[in-house]
Hints:
Blueprint: E1 3-8, H1 16-30, E2 34-39, H2 54-57, H3 66-74, E3 78-84, H4 92-100, H5 102-109, H6 118-122, E4 125-131, H7 144-154, E5 157-164, H8 180-193
Parallel strand pairs: 1-2, 1-3, 3-4, 4-5
Helix pairs in contact: 1-8
The chain binds flavin mononucleotide.
Amino acid sequence: MIRVLGVSGSPHRHGNTERLLDAFLEGAREAGADTKKVVLSTLTYAPCRGCNACHRTGVCVVDDDATPLLEEMAHVDVLAVASPIYSMGITSELKGLIDRAQYLWARRMVTNTLDYPPEHLDRHRGVFLSTAGSDWPNVFDGAYPVAQALFSGLGFRYAANVVVNGLDAHGGRIQAHPTALADARAAGRREVASLLPR
Length: 198
Ligand SMILES: Cc1cc2nc3c(=O)[nH]c(=O)nc-3n(C[C@H](O)[C@H](O)[C@H](O)COP(=O)(O)O)c2cc1C
């Protein structure tokens, strides 16, 4: 069974971004996957302290909801991470979680206790989903490298983006967009199908 985990970084419950993620997860279920959604605003975690203890030990000293979630994220087959664009970047909820994954970077680059061979990356697919109000084509450019940092740390190949800009022109409602939700559903089906035996 292919496991798909959706992580919503939007503080707006059932808003544009969570709906986009829901559509992706629906598509994944249609393709036969087992899906779960985590909403970051319902969890409690602190930002990274920058203490660099993980650079010596490979372990984060902070004990809260972030590390168990990151461990769960690392063990799924498809990781779908969603954030609206806030002030030209991802939300503080998602950025805070990504910074807390620094201990994984430390394991790979400092303590040399973690490595992801190409076969591992072939089986772990990361998808970034986002929504934005403006129709500026480059509105997601600040978000992509941050998503890449998360997927690299967790051992996922950055497989696809599902992004929708210009929502202000649709009254700020993704339900009024002609294709966004259907496209996200198709992307969910596609990512799961890509991992199934041919
Ligand atoms: C605090 C805040 C900052 C935002 N900054 C931007 C921005 O820089 N560029 C943009 O295109 N839209 C911006 N938006 C609009 C959101 O990206 C857009 O409405 C998005 O679809 C909201 O998703 P949500 O319903 O999940 O919160 C901002 C919205 C908020 C609340």
